[in-house]
Hints:
The complex is a heterodimer of chains A (about 110) and B (about 110). Helix content of chain A is about 0%, strand content about 60%. Chain A has strands at about 5, 10-15, 20-25, 30-40, 45-50, 55-60, 60-65, 70-75, 85-95, 100, 105-110. With about 110 residues, chain B is mostly beta strands.
Amino acid sequence: KNQVEQSPQSLIILEGKNCTLQCNYTVSPFSNLRWYKQDTGRGPVSLTIMTFSENTKSNGRYTATLDADTKQSSLHITASQLSDSASYICVVSNRGSYIPTFGRGTSLIVHP
Amino acid sequence: DADVTQTPRNRITKTGKRIMLECSQTKGHDRMYWYRQDPGLGLRLIYYSFDVKDINKGEISDGYSVSRQAQAKFSLSLESAIPNQTALYFCATSDMTDGQYFGPGTRLLVL
C-alpha cells in the first residue's frame, strides 16, 4: 500500500531559526514528490517538485532534498519567519497513476 | 481571479439535508478532484474525474456523489448530510505534468 509518513507531527521554533521536516514514503513506482505549504483555512500551495533524478531543489528559503534509494525527503527552512507558520504536506505520485498520496503534514509554528 | 474557486466558502446545514458544493477552474485542466480534510488526518480523496465523462471513487466516497458538468466544473453533493461529514472540503485540478492546484476550501458544519 502506498504510504507517506511525515515527522515531526508538529514543531515550534523561534523566528530566525532553521528547521528540517522529514518525509518517508513507500509509493512505487515513484514519479515525483512535492512539498506543499498550507496556511490555516486555505488550500495547499506547491513549494517544490522533485523527480527521481533530482536530489535537491530550492525555492527561496525552502530547500527540499530527495534520496530515492532510501525513499526519504526533507524540507529545510532557513531563517524562519512568522509567515512560515503553516502546515507542510509531503505528496508523492507514482508512475501510471495520477492519484497522489498525501502525508498528514507537519504543523510548524514560528514564535517571535 | 483565482484559478480554482469554490462555493460556498462556509455552510451550516442540518442532519438529513441535501447540499451541493461547487468548484470551478480556469486553468484548463482535465483532471479535477474533491478532498476532505479533518484535523490530524490530512487530505483524503473523495472522488476524482479525468475528463467530462469520467467519474471515479476515491478512498472515502460513501455518502457523497459528484457531477462533472463541464471541463471547468465539478460539484460534490451530500445526499443526506450527517454530523461526521463536518470537515473542510477542497477541490483541486491538475494536468499531466503539473501539480495539483487547490481551491480555497469550503468549511462545512452539519448539525
